[in-house]
Write a structure and sequence with these properties.
This protein is of the alpha/beta class. It has a single domain, classed as 3-Layer(aba) Sandwich (Rossmann fold), CATH 3.40.50. The protein has seven helices and seven strands, in the order E-H-E-H-E-E-H-E-H-E-H-H-H-E. The chain has a seven-stranded parallel β-sheet, sandwiched between helices. Strand 5, helix 4 and strand 6 (about 185-190) form a beta-alpha-beta unit. Helix 1 (about 35-45) crosses helix 7 (about 225-235) and helix 3 packs parallel to helix 4 (about 160-180). The longest helix is centred in the middle third of the chain and has 22 residues, at about 115-135. About 45% of the residues are buried. The structure holds NADP nicotinamide-adenine-dinucleotide phosphate. NADP nicotinamide-adenine-dinucleotide phosphate binds near residues 35 and 55. NADP nicotinamide-adenine-dinucleotide phosphate binds near residues 76 and 190.
């Protein structure tokens, strides 16, 4: 997938909030849905200039409209080459946020070698290829936020592969925080968050499954995309935070 669409829609909403994000260029890979869309909305509201990256032009356009305007670029985690030319057409970037991903859960017994390769490609090769492609265009005062997940610490029977890849992200941000300094590198680790990802995951049992999960959490509710977006906003604006994994899971690691 080599096509790159760079397009502005409407102007971003008037800056209202955090001076550290106002006027900054924030790229959100996975910004068409769920957590990424909430991050894009949050930073746009803070006055940032937003670039959205996703696989589908129509979904990108809808997301850009929803947040009041954003650049839109096509890119696929399974096609690292799609990111090589992406940055040529863009202004320098202050913050790179990568939330893109799916959640394929299978036992090891069910997984073919191709499934394993695909998981590593989506969760590690893809995001790291984007970071690598962005390196010459990231401002030294900027930061990177990658996405881990509760599975890294709270295992489930079908989650070994996904758990391994998200745990790797947590180890990677600590090393990259040294390698890429002064650019700051952090990860956010969401617990269960009500997004379209969970629709496909739970199907008809979603309402019941989420109610059960919520009742078990110290917060008494599962996450909303905005909960994670606020945490990402903190990582972006917090100039003294690097090599950190911020867990936003309603206490999910504790129960
Ligand atoms: N929701 C949760 O409970 C939860 C918990 C822990 C971790 N997470 C992680 O948080 C991240 C965001 O999840 P979400 O719940 O917000 O999911 P979501 O609503 O399904 O959104 C997923 C986003 O990822 C993009 N994406 C998926 N595959 C891609 C690919 N191959 N290349 C480029 N973009 C791709 C999608 O864009 P297009 O489809 O438009 O291309 C979409 O913007 C994921 O990495 C997920 O594993 C979620």
């Amino acid at each position: 997938m080599n096509e790159t669409i760079v397009r502005h829609t409407a102007a971003a909403p008037e800056a209202t909030g955090h001076a550290l994000l106002a006027g900054r260029h924030v790229m959100v890979v996975g910004g068409t849905s769920g957590i990424g869309l909430a991050v894009a909305r949050h930073v746009a509201h803070e006055g940032a200039e937003v670039t959205l990256v996703g696989r589908d032009a129509e979904r990108l356009r809808r997301a850009a409209d929803e947040i009041g305007g954003a650049r839109q670029c096509i890119g696929d985690l399974h096609d690292s080459a799609s990111f090589t030319a992406l940055f040529d057409a863009l202004p320098d970037i202050d913050h790179l946020v990568i939330t893109a991903g799916t959640a394929s859960l299978k036992t090891l017994r069910e997984s073919t070698p191709d499934d394993l390769r695909r998981a590593v490609e989506e969760r590690l090769v893809g995001p790291l290829s984007i970071v690598r492609a962005a390196l010459d265009r990231l401002r030294p005062t900027g930061s990177i936020v990658l996405t881990s997940g509760l599975l890294a610490e709270r295992p489930i029977r079908t989650g070994a592969i996904l758990a391994g890849t998200v745990a790797a992200i947590e180890a990677i941000v600590r090393s990259l925080a040294l390698e890429l300094a002064p650019i700051r590198v952090n990860a956010v680790s969401p617990g269960l968050v009500d997004t379209p990802l969970l629709d496909s995951f739970f199907g008809d049992t979603k309402t019941e499954a989420l109610a059960t999960a919520a009742a078990a959490l110290p917060t008494g509710r599962i996450g909303r995309p905005d909960d994670i977006a606020q945490a990402v906003g903190l990582l972006l604006a917090g100039g003294f935070i690097t090599g950190e994994v911020l867990h936003v899971d309603g206490g999910g690691r504790l129960v």
